[in-house]
Write a structure and sequence with these properties.
Elements: E1 4-14, E2 22-27, E3 49-52, H1 53-65, E4 70-75, H2 82-95, E5 100-105, H3 114-120, E6 125-128, E7 148-151, H4 154-160, E8 173-177, E9 183-187, H5 192-204
Parallel strand pairs: 2-4, 4-5, 5-6
Antiparallel strand pairs: 1-2, 1-3, 6-7, 8-9
Helix pairs in contact: 1-2, 2-3
The structure holds iron/sulfur cluster (SF4).
Iron/sulfur cluster is lined by residues 30, 32-34, 37, 39, 42, 75-77, 106, 130-131.
Length: 217
């Protein structure tokens, strides 16, 4: 039986979670319970959908053909499923494309066990550390000031060096309607007020962002 990864959602193209146009996978299940987390729907390890890693690799191949610059793996906590994420990232490496992998984890590097470290080392870019609501930041793609961006490969250094200290005026947040007309959003609204303003503005228009979305390619 092929390996399976439990996912909360997947979207392509996403322009608000890393360099360029990306396939983003939100992995289901997170044990870290950061106070103020805006992704509580991803905490339940039994939630989401179980998907074959082989099928996800097919999605990555289709995204590459459609011009994707990279894959972002977010959560939830991706390293809670280190074996399946590792299989996926090994498959991505075999594609050989100029395609970077950005992996989010709420763990610090020195908290990882050997399997988690092995998987983390397959990423070009790692963003590490829990969300700390009392440490707001303007740094792009990070939710709080303690979170660190690690550039592990030449491709990562080429694409991301200018972003390590970059603070945009507004954090990139993308809002889209799916094929069924439901809204989904992606990004790191690094202040709780931003997410609340997003919710209020859309609620005024009659939309809710509370439900989990799911769309394979
Ligand atoms: S690590 Fe991320 S998903 Fe998990 S509780 Fe913290 S902010 Fe939420």
């Amino acid at each position: 039986m092929s390996e399976r990864l439990r996912l909360a959602r997947a979207h392509f193209p996403v322009t608000s979670l890393g360099y360029g146009h990306r396939l983003v996978l939100w992995v289901q299940g997170c044990p870290l319970a950061c106070p103020g987390c805006i992704a509580k729907d991803t905490w339940d390890p039994a939630g989401g959908v179980a998907v074959d890693v082989a099928d996800l690799l097919g999605d990555v191949r289709r995204a590459v053909l459609a011009g994707a610059d990279g894959l972002t793996v977010s959560g939830g906590e991706p390293l809670r499923q280190a074996a399946a994420v590792g299989s996926l990232l090994r498959g991505v490496q075999e594609l050989g494309a100029a395609f970077d992998v950005l992996l989010y984890t709420g763990f610090e590097l020195d908290e990882l066990d050997s399997a988690q470290r092995e998987t983390a080392e397959l990423a070009d870019v790692l963003i590490t550390g829990r969300y700390v609501a009392t440490a707001p930041t303007g740094l792009i793609w990070r939710g709080s000031a303690n979170q660190r961006m690690h550039l592990r490969t030449p491709l990562a250094r080429d694409r991301y060096t200018d972003f390590i200290e970059y603070e945009p005026e507004h954090p990139p947040v993308q809002i889209e309607a799916d094929r069924e007309g439901r809204l989904w959003w992606a990004g790191v609204p690094n202040r709780p007020e931003t997410k609340r303003a997003l919710d209020r503005g859309l609620a005024a228009l009659g939309y809710s962002l509370e439900s989990t979305s799911w769309r394979r390619q």
